[in-house]
C-alpha cells in the first residue's frame, strides 16, 4: 500500500519537530551557544535553508522548544490526573512517570541547565525561559489547589506560592539525584511532595477556628 502523501502543513510540522528534536539533543551535548544552525539542520537531516524556512533564527527555535516541552509536560501530567480517584492514586501514577523520566535524567538535566545558562548569557531570552517556568508553576498550582479542594481544606498560603515551593524543591532534588544519587531514589520528588502536602494539610487544620 502506498504511503499517505503528507499535506504541505503536515510536512512543515514534521520538519519543525525533527529540527526541535535535533536541537534538544545538541543543546544537551554542546550547549545552546556551542550549537550552530548548520549542526541542527544536519542532525535533523535537512539543509540550512530548511531551518530558516521554519525558524527566523536560533532564539526563535529556543522559544519553540521551551513551549513544546512545557505543553508536552502539561499534557502528560493532565493525563496522569485524569480519572484518578484520590491524591494517593495520582501520586502512584506520578511515581511511575518519574521512574520513566529518571531513565533520561542526564539528558533532561543537561538540557534544562543549558537553557538556563542561555537565559543567563542572553538577557533577551530570559522572558521566554521565564514564561516556560511560569507555565509549569501554574500547572503545579492547579494540582495543589485541586487536592486541597478534594480534602475540603483551606491552603495554608497562596497556592501560587506553594507551587513555587514545590517547583523549586523538584529542581533541587533532581539536581541532587543527578550529582549524588546515593540515598536519593527515582521517587524522591513524589515522596517530598507527599510529605509537604501532609504537612500543609495538618497546618491548615491546626489553624482552622
Describe this structure as you would to a colleague.
This protein has 209 residues and is mainly α. It has 2 domains: 15-55, Homeodomain-like (Arc Repressor Mutant, subunit A), CATH 1.10.10.60; 66-207, Tetracycline Repressor, domain 2. The chain has 9 helices and no strands. α1 crosses α6 and α7 (126-151) crosses α8 (159-179). The chain is elongated.
Radius of gyration: 20 Å
* CATH architecture descriptor of the largest domain: Orthogonal Bundle
Q: Let me know the average pLDDT.
A: 86
Main beta sheet strand tally, sense and closure: none
Report the uncertain regions: none
DSSP strand tally: 0
Shape: elongated
Which CATH top level class of the largest domain fits? Answer: Mainly Alpha
Strand content: under 5%
Q: Number of folding domains?
A: 2
Q: Helix-strand pattern, N to C? A: HHHHHHHHH
What is the CATH topology assignment of the largest domain?
Tetracycline Repressor, domain 2
Helix content: over 70%
> Regarding quaternary structure, how should these chains be classified?
single chain
The helix tally amounts to 9
Structural class: mainly alpha
Separation, N- and C-terminal Cα atoms:
71 Å
* The CATH homologous superfamily of the largest domain: Tetracycline Repressor, domain 2
